[in-house]
């Protein structure tokens, strides 16, 4: 999945919908390509975490080149969270 | 130290008035040792020189104590409850948890102090009904008389020179209200108004431009951006739908505030760590974590949340 632009209160419903679709796919690694994302707020990162937590078994959410907000918010609120991986 | 053992779910919050290193040690070290003897988890959050005094006395026992540099972790008083006190207490449920928390030291600035004393007052509400003891040392030689008077109002009990006195002046809600002070804006502030979610990007970009011009860079500029996004989004979603952002510099810090017509009614907003699985409620908490100081004024016309970031 490719995310582009920014994730905030206006784009959040679309973001949640897209993450919901992604999590229903059967692959063990689910990729979100984020290099074209310019900004994501706390609620948007929370959606990523909730998606990762909902994955069964050893499935993994891989965040490819996320903007700085993602590691900053993950470190603050979910340090050491499993099921989610940041690829720089 | 306490004459009677606290009830199993009773929060205990004494202030310790100390003069000099010897009184500091005799007021804190037995409190730590008593906790260790009872197998209670013990944390000490204080300025580094104070931590060292306690470590020196504890020797090998210091390994069993969690030490926190309060001048860093508690630089912004608004994050002490979630980031220091509850972080430790919530990780050790089951029995009583013991913490020494020294949030007010000589050198706290006049602009920090109202947030410090409101924090001390709000601890009482934040820990009501929990098996936690938080001992708060106050340096009587270095702090103003007014600070010590406030400590009588924010702590139900004061310990001085080994004896414990119930405080007749205990009144934490009155302290929170008294320090809910209007926040004057300097003439140099740059301001912009915003309305609706469609203008959130523009107001955030305005803040980043100004922050950069005022000397913020790197991680601090990014933290400004995050904090602005959360506060302005709150104004649009939970407030009146619109608001004003102002930004300027004071000494070594960039100061930014968001004002809206909403009323923040929960005094513990931004101080509760939400459960990891909870989907929302982290906006103001984030601001508390990234800023060096957060001041809040709730007035007739609405709410102002002002935060400081070092440049």
UniProtKB/TrEMBL annotation, chain B:
Molecular-function annotations in GO: protein serine/threonine kinase activity
CDD domains linked: HATPase_RsbW-like (cd16936)
MEDS domain sequence ranges: 13-156
Positions of the Histidine kinase/HSP90-like ATPase domain: 199-308
Cleavable signal peptide: none
Keyword set, alphabetical order: Kinase, Serine/threonine-protein kinase, Transferase
NCBIfam families according to UniProt: RsbA_anti_sig
Name assigned to this protein: Anti-sigma regulatory factor
Organism: Streptomyces spiralis
């Amino acid at each position: 999945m490719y995310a582009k632009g920014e994730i905030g209160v206006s784009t959040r419903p679309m973001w949640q919908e897209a993450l919901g679709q992604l999590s229903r796919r059967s692959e063990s690694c689910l990729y979100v390509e984020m290099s074209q994302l310019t900004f994501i707020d706390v609620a948007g990162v929370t959606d990523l975490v909730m998606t990762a937590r909902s994955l069964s078994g050893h499935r993994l959410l891989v965040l490819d080149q996320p903007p700085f907000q993602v590691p900053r918010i993950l470190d603050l609120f979910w340090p050491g969270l499993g099921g989610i991986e940041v690829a720089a | 130290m306490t004459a009677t053992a606290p009830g199993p779910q009773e929060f205990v919050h004494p202030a310790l008035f100390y003069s000099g290193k010897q009184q500091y040690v005799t007021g804190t070290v037995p409190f730590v040792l008593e906790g260790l003897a009872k197998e209670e988890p013990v944390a000490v959050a204080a300025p580094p020189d104070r931590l060292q005094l306690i470590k020196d006395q504890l020797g090998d026992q210091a390994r069993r104590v969690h030490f926190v540099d309060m001048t860093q972790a508690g630089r912004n008083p608004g994050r002490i409850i979630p980031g220091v006190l509850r972080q430790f207490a919530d990780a050790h449920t089951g029995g009583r948890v013991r913490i020494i928390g020294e949030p007010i030291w000589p050198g706290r600035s006049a602009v920090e102090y109202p947030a410090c004393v409101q924090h001390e007052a709000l601890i009482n509400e934040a820990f009501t009904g929990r098996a936690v003891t938080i001992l708060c040392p106050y340096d009587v030689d270095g702090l103003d008389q007014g600070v010590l008077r406030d400590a009588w109002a924010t702590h139900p009990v004061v310990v001085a020179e080994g004896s414990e006195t119930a405080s007749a002046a205990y009144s934490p809600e009155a302290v929170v209200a008294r320090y809910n002070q209007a926040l004057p804006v300097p003439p140099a502030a740059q301001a912009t108004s915003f309305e609706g979610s469609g203008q959130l990007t523009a107001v955030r970009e305005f803040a980043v431009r100004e922050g950069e011009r005022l000397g913020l860079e790197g991680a601090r500029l990014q933290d400004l951006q995050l904090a602005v996004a959360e506060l302005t989004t709150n104004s649009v979603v939970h407030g009146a739908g619109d608001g004003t952002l102002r930004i300027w510099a004071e000494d070594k810090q960039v100061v930014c505030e968001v004002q809206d017509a909403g009323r923040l009614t929960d005094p513990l907003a931004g101080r509760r760590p939400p459960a990891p699985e909870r989907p929302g409620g982290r906006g103001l908490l984030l601001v508390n974590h990234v800023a060096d100081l957060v001041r809040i004024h709730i007035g007739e016309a609405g709410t102002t949340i002002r935060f400081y970031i070092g440049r």
